[in-house]
Amino acid sequence: MKIAIVGSGKVGAAIGYTAMLKGLAHEIVMVDAARDKARGEALDMLQCLSFAPPARIRHGEMADTAGADIVVITAGIPRKADEPRVLLLSRNAALIADLVRQAVHYSPNCIIFMVTNPLDVMTQLAYQVSGLPVGRVIGMGTVLDTARYRSYLAAAFDADARDVDAYVVGEHGETMVCLTSQVSVRGVALTALPAYDQAKLAAIIEDVVRASSEVIALKGGTVFAPATAACAVLEAIVRDSRAVLPVCTYNEQHGVALSLPTVVGRHGAGPVLPLKLSAAEQEQLAASVANIKKYVKEMENLL
């Protein structure tokens, strides 16, 4: 398994490092416009190999990604604490379109895995310019938001985060939808737990929506959680585990790329699984879809 990571900033480097520790690839190629940055990250990872699973770790140009099974794209200008993700649209759209075309040129059988923000719009752009089947262009989507949601729920209601079944769907952004109607812990409804409190749940949802901005304000960027979420998707592909993850793919029914619970394996992403939503959640999801569509239209005007 060869994984190419295009963008060797904090998140790209952390994804490469985590993938190496998990033994997800026999070869990892780090690529960045700042070639020395990619070289430095690759060397730093290479020096771990006496304590990590065997792998070939190197840096290179886009041509060195040739034959990659998965191309992870994290390149782009990161957001600041006071910026919505969508403001990155004008900065990153042309860059991402070019990188996706190059990735597919060198690795026509690859899976494209998008991490660059604004995630939903960039995933749709990647799908449109790649010419790949819909299931082979995957965005990290709300896998990260779902991880945050489950972690906060676990902390608030005294549970193991790995036992919490809860999803965030829709946009990886300000209109994300934290589903509440079917949250459970090992099959037990959240509302049945002794510690359950409706006001506490509402506060958790607010915390999830602002989680990224809070971390950016405190330490300058989110790194570990995005890398861990990204590698959960990579692991599902590499191990062909057919894990259910709320990745972002283009959805014909909604006419836009968005995140919904989806089976992920070596084939890529799909099928998308049906959701039983409350009336309020359906309204929230519709608003989230409308918001993504608005930004897709803006993107189309830029290109």
Automatic annotation (TrEMBL):
Classification via InterPro entries: L-lactate/malate_DH, Lactate/malate_DH_C, Lactate/malate_DH_N, Lactate_DH/Glyco_Ohase_4_C, NAD(P)-bd_dom_sf
Membrane-crossing residue ranges in chain numbering: none
Pfam family, any one: Ldh_1_N
GO molecular function terms listed in the Swiss-Prot or TrEMBL record: L-lactate dehydrogenase (NAD+) activity
Biological process annotations from GO: lactate metabolic process
Sequence ranges assigned to domain Lactate/malate dehydrogenase N-terminal in this UniProt record: 1-139
Keyword Coiled coil: no
Annotated substrate binding sites: 79, 85, 117, 148
Active site (record annotation): 172 (proton acceptor)
Positions contributing to NAD(+) binding: 7-12, 32, 92, 115-117
Keywords: NAD, Oxidoreductase
UniProt domain Lactate/malate dehydrogenase C-terminal: residue ranges: 142-301
Family membership: Belongs to the LDH/MDH superfamily. LDH family.
Protein name per UniProt: L-lactate dehydrogenase
